[in-house]
Here is the input.
Amino acid sequence: SQTIHQWPATLVQPVGSPLSLECTVEGTSNPNLYWYRQAAGRGLQLLFYSVGIGQISSEVPQNLSASRPQDRQFILSSKKLLLSDSGFYLCAWSVRAGWDTIYFGEGSWLTVV
Amino acid sequence: SQQGEEDPQALSIQEGENATMNCSYKTSINNLQWYRQNSGRGLVHLILIRSNEREKHSGRLRVTLDTSKKSSSLLITASRAADTASYFCATVPYGNNRLAFGKGNQVVVIP
Here is the structure.
């Protein structure tokens, strides 16, 4: 069966520090991969999605970037965090062919102080 | 981007009662999905209904879709305390391969 792992689960970072959140998927090949952000009490905002290695689409301009160095690995990064980057970040995957069920990781809580 | 809007945004009910949530959207869709999120956790897919379907069941869940009104409803029958969570609808619009989520509907089931 397929599983998705996301880490770290929680982190507190000072303003201006770098960020790296990692996500890996097991049990499937060529998945679509996504990074979402969820601000407190709000819905999910799609940040990035990827349909293959090295292929990244950015949905909104921001202080973040994403990379997909391997088929089942998706990384969310920032060189210098802002206070507004605080939130709950969710990695997710779906079958490459379409936008049916999306499977989410357990999320990473980021607090920028 | 296309987004569903859930209504009501917060719902508090007694255990055993039914909970009904509605979702409205703005443009034609390929499918509509409902997800559940327990506090501080990732989202879990509940059910998907395609644009050519009108009703779907899964256990105690019943989803309807009215494409003429651009709306969907999620009914949880015989609610349990464990159903306490936020529920999100998400849509995939025609010609736009994005899954866009609404802001969510918080449901509290009181034992």
Q: What stands out?
A: The radius of gyration of chain B is 13 Å. The first strand of chain B starts at residue 5 and ends at 7. Chain B touches chain A through 22 residues (CB under 8 Å). The mean pLDDT of chain B is 90.
